[in-house]
Amino acid sequence: LTPGDLAGVRVVVSAGGTREPIDPVRFLGNRSSGRQGAALAAEAAARGAEVTLVSANISGEVLAEVRHPSIRVVSVGTAAELSEAMTHESSLADVVVMAAAVADYRPAAVSERKLTKEGGGIPAIELVENEDIVAALASQRRSGQLVVGFAAETPEDASELLARARRKQHRKRVDLLIVNEVGWERGFESPENAVHILGPNGADAGSASGSKRAVAAAIWDAIARAR
Ligand code: C5P
């Protein structure tokens, strides 16, 4: 596709991973570096899109790699902050890409003071469920808006991977689902990635592998075809 094929398209990409505080010094988090989402923002900007990157705890180093005049960065920490930012930023967007790794649960209460071992015993952290942000965005999408979700899976085999992904796509009502096979050594923190792409209604829209930027290019090709 041509470099300017996203000219004027308004894109919102979430990337990184949320952190749910336990106390002033601890959190529940995940291993997402934000590199794939940042590459999606960079690729969209290079093709002419107006991009808002909603960054959940992405390092300054990764953000510096994707600096571009057409990318505006909005920083958030928790899933609740991410939800609020996405709802606000996506109201005028043509394409919403939810690449951030969102905590499914958060501590029911955040301790005002650091938990200590002093009273003895092992603390139990009660969890409550976070809202499914992409499902909410998809259910409120404005007409013509495309919503893209991600799924990081650790499947037993390839057929289970896609079956589970199709159920997820249907449940969340997203137009496209980018399926990422991850494991202890794969996906996270790595400069490379490999994905399967499910198009509208679970149709196979191909796969891509290589640098995260190359994978981003293939994902935007699939999004452009679906628009
Ligand atoms: O269900 P699962 O976490 O595998 O779904 C992944 C997709 O859903 C990603 O697009 C992620 O950004 C999104 N998600 C969300 N809100 C959550 C959990 C996941 O938007 N609470």
From TrEMBL:
Gene Ontology MF annotations: phosphopantothenate--cysteine ligase activity; phosphopantothenoylcysteine decarboxylase activity
Pathway it works in: Cofactor biosynthesis; coenzyme A biosynthesis; CoA from (R)-pantothenate: step 3/5; Cofactor biosynthesis; coenzyme A biosynthesis; CoA from (R)-pantothenate: step 2/5
Keyword Iron: no
Binding site for CTP: D104, K114, F150, K168, K172
Reaction equation(s) it catalyzes: N-[(R)-4-phosphopantothenoyl]-L-cysteine + H(+) = (R)-4'-phosphopantetheine + CO2; (R)-4'-phosphopantothenate + L-cysteine + CTP = N-[(R)-4-phosphopantothenoyl]-L-cysteine + CMP + diphosphate + H(+)
Note on cofactor: Binds 1 FMN per subunit.
Cofactor(s) this protein cannot do without: FMN; Mg(2+)
Ranges where the DNA/pantothenate metabolism flavoprotein C-terminal domain occurs: 6-224
Keyword set includes Hydrolase: no
EC number in record: 4.1.1.36, 6.3.2.5
Region (Phosphopantothenate--cysteine ligase) location: 11-227
UniProt KW keywords: Decarboxylase, Flavoprotein, FMN, Ligase, Lyase, Magnesium, Metal-binding, Multifunctional enzyme
Function of the protein: Catalyzes two steps in the biosynthesis of coenzyme A. In the first step cysteine is conjugated to 4'-phosphopantothenate to form 4-phosphopantothenoylcysteine, in the latter compound is decarboxylated to form 4'-phosphopantotheine. Catalyzes two sequential steps in the biosynthesis of coenzyme A. In the first step cysteine is conjugated to 4'-phosphopantothenate to form 4-phosphopantothenoylcysteine. In the second step the latter compound is decarboxylated to form 4'-phosphopantotheine.
Family label: In the C-terminal section; belongs to the PPC synthetase family. In the N-terminal section; belongs to the HFCD (homo-oligomeric flavin containing Cys decarboxylase) superfamily.
Protein name per UniProt: Coenzyme A biosynthesis bifunctional protein CoaBC
Naturally occurring in which organism (per UniProt): Microbacterium aurugineum
Gene: coaBC
